[in-house]
Structure formats: structure tokens, C-alpha cells
Amino acid sequence: MNKKMSITALALAVGAGAGAAQAQSLEERVSALENTPMANTNFAVGGFVKADSHLTQATDGDSSATQEFLIPSLIPTGGDNSSVNYNNNAKQSRIFFKTTSDTEMGDVGTYIEIDFRGAGGDERVSSSYGVRLRHAFMTFQDFTIGQTWSTFFNVGTLPENLDFVGPVGTIFERQAQIRYSPGNWDFALENPQSTFYNSSDAITRSEADATVDDLGGTASYDSNRMPDLVARYNVPVDAGSLSIAAMGREIAYKNGFVNPDGDTRESAYGYGVSLAAKMPVGDNGSDIRAQLNGGNAMGRYLSLNGFRAAQIEDNGDIELIDQMGGFVSYRHIWSPQWRSNLTLSHSTADNPDSVAGGAAKSYSSTHANLIYSPISNLDLGGEIIWGDKELENGSNGELHRLQFTAKLGF
User: Fold this and answer.
1) Could you say which residues form the signal peptide (predicted)?
2) What are phi and psi of 21, to 5 degrees?
3) Residue range 137-183, pLDDT digits in tens
4) Helix (H), strand (E) at residue 14
5) What H or E segment, with its residue span, contains residue 407?
6) pLDDT-based confidence at 217, cuts 50/70/90?
7) Average pLDDT over residues 109-115
8) Residue 242, exposed/middle/buried by CB under 10 A (0-12, 13-18, 19+)?
9) Backbone φ/ψ region at 304: left (φ over 0), alpha (ψ -120 to 50), beta
């Protein structure tokens, strides 16, 4: 009897000890998890799948170079025949990853977004396309550091077009930056890049810091010594968005050409201003969106790099180019499921006489669409697009497009 009781007591003691050890081990594991860097971090994943069908006609040449979305500078001009192209793709589909962490400094966040408009794939078999980085930035306190929309661009005023970008007169730029946002202000140091028309064979465009694009006689240079400086004030409004932004830029190049002062580098300083607004119309969700942009150093910021920021003259001097662009767009809500958008846009450049006749003088565009959303996050729509490009030599070309889109967010 005593022997059985001793064995029972021993078993209970061993069991209690094992239970205590397991409890302690579990407590240690929980404590270790709580002390990991991700313990106070929330994760989010989202994006959308977007499938587009385009039927495109160019009045003055081959439209294949711009058959997926409206790129103003690629509208063909001066061709003998019009062309029609049909295209399907899902390259605008995108995914984002987002984190928010509670730290001693307050909330710290990260955001990464990709789409599939990278290097071209093979449409003969797999229609695969490369991943492309859109956004990659961190946020803490009043700072945003990394790649995202330029502070000069109020993305909230962009029209709801089915076309990938939309109006030719819009600002549209994503780039690496350091942004400080106290209150209603934004101040940013952003990645620079200078773009030029080139009128002289004496300017060597084959240097390592210059890349020649597909428009003959033009080049872009990575020779800047200072960032693009941007300040934006976001006006407090009860509904919608209203902002004014100012930008100062250095436009610079260097290469084998030696100017009269014996310097191989030239630079000039210019500015840009952007006024952007989105204002409600009525109380059913309809709104008007608009931008007015201008300055003598707009360059790549306007019309999807449709103009260059400056002209390199025969003697190597830089002449900045005055440019202006904008749009107005009206969104009408017909019902909870149906809505329409009408967008009118124009941009123009006051090019110097020395610019070649093939340089763009102006662009115009119109977008009109009808969108049906039978359930939340699903958009089915059609859009009519018209684009026009006029050159300095008087030549012009038009692009006509019918686009159908299905888009499902997640």
C-alpha cells in the first residue's frame, strides 16, 4: 500500500515538474515572439487583375509602338498610310505589400508595389512579361523615403480613365526621393534627370552619362549635381483635393565638347508650377478634376516625357524651353453601378527656332468612357480615346482607340 502511494506521489511530482517545464518553455517562446521585430507589425496584401483589349488606328503611320496605352510622343506623323492594330494584355495587373509597425518612434510603415509592364515577353507562346517596380518606400513620423509618386504630382486629381495614364497634359512621374511632410506641406529632394534636344553634331551623345532615345537628335543625361527640389501645399478643403506645387531643377549635361570657357559641363536652372484640384459636384459622388502645369523646366514631368527640358545650342549653351499643359475631367455618377468620365487635355511647348522640325510642338487628347460595377471591386468598361500630335514643321498625326477593360481588385 505504501509502495503504491510512493509510486503515485512520484508520478504526480514528475508530471507536475514536466507541466511546469512545459509552461515555462511555452512562456519563453511567447516572450521571444513578442520581442521579435515583427511582433507589433500588421501586414496587408492587395492589388488588382486588369485585362485590356485595344483596337487602335493611327492616321499617319504604324500605331504598333503605342497600341497599349496613349504615349503622346509615339503618335506617328507624316506617314503615307493609316494602320489598325488589335491587342490584348493583362500587363497592368499589380500587387502591393504593406506593413505597419508600432514602435517607440510611432508607426513605421513600408510599401512595395509591382506590375508586369517590364521587359517584353513572347506573344507567340507564353505572353510572359517582366515584373516592374512601381513603388518601394518607407514611412516614419513625417518622412517618406524611397520610390513613389513625385511630390510635384497630385495623383488624387488624375481622371478615372481606363487608359493606363490618360490625359496628355498631366504631370506623371514616379522616382526616388526624400520627403518631409509637416502639416499640410510637403518638401522633397527627388532624383534628377535632364533631357535635351540636340542641334549640333559637336555635342557627343555617346558618352557614358548620356542615353539617346528613339526621337532622333534628342538625349537624356544623368549629370546633375543637385536633386530636383519640390514644395507642395495641400489646401485644407471639406471634400476633394486642392494643391499647388513648385519645383526647382538643375538641367545639366557633360561630354567631350569643350565650350569657349574650357568647361566640359553646362548647366541651367529652371522651375515648374502645378495647380491641381478635385472638387465634388452635387452629393452623389460626381466630381470635376483638373490640372494646370507650366514652367521653363517641365521636360520629362509633362506629357510622359513628350517634350525635352532644353535645347543644346551649337555653341554648347543650354536654352530652357517654356512649356504648359493641363486637363479638365468630369466624372458623372449615373447610379451606384454606372458612371462616366469625360477628359479633355492639351499641352504645348514654345520651342526655340533652333529646334529641329521633327520636335513636338503640341499634344491634345480626349477620353470618354462608361464603367459598370456590378459588385464591389469589379469594373467593366469601354473607352473612346483620341490623341493628336503636332510637330514644329507643321506635320501632325492622330490616334483613335477603342478600349475595353475588366478589372477586379483584391
Assistant:
1) 1-23
2) -65, -40
3) 999 999 999 999 999 999 999 999 999 999 999 999 999 999 999 99
4) helix 2-34
5) strand 396-409
6) low
7) 98
8) middle
9) left
- In the prediction, which pLDDT does 202 show? 35
Report the alpha-carbon distance of residue 407 to residue 358 in Å, rounded. Answer: 38
For residues 372 and 405, is the Cβ–Cβ distance under 8 A?
no
DSSP states along 358-376: TSEEEEEEEEEEEEE-SST
Tell me which CATH code domain 43-409 carries.
2.40.160.10
Q: Which cell numbers in the block locate residue 55?
A: 483596337
The single-letter DSSP state of residue 334 is -
As a residue count, the chain comes to 410
Is residue 126 within 8 Å of residue 120, measured between CB atoms? Answer: no
Residue 323's DSSP bridge partners are 295, 349
What one-letter code names the amino acid at 87? N
| Three-state secondary structure call for residue 340 | strand
The alpha-helical segments, DSSP class H, found in 125-252 are none
Phi, psi of 212 (to 5 degrees): -95, 130
Distance (Å, rounded) from C-alpha 331 to C-alpha 342?
7
The answer to whether the beta carbons of residues 270 and 297 sit under 8 Å apart is yes
Q: Which helix (H) or strand (E) holds 29?
A: helix 2-34
Cα torsion through 68, 73, 76, 78, rounded to 10: 170
**Confidence category of residue 55, pLDDT binned at 50, 70, 90:** very high
Strand partners, 198: 312
What are phi and psi for residue 263, nearest 5 degrees?
Answer: -100, 140
First to last CA, the chain: 69
CA distance 221 to 210: 5
Phi first, then psi: what are they for 101, rounded to 5°?
A: -120, 140
Report the SS3 class of residue 11: helix
Contact between 340 and 283 under an 8 Å Cβ cutoff? The reply is no
Are the beta carbons of 377 and 408 closer than 8 angstroms? yes
Give the SS3 label for residue 246. strand
pLDDT in tens, 340-377: 999 999 999 999 999 999 999 999 999 999 999 999 99
Please give the Cα distance from 30 to 23 (Å, whole number).
10
Of 367, 363, 353, residue with least CA distance to 305: 363
Q: Look up residue 89 and give its three cell numbers.
A: 494584355
Q: How many CA atoms lie within 13 A of 138 on its CB side?
A: 5
* Amino acid, res. 31: S
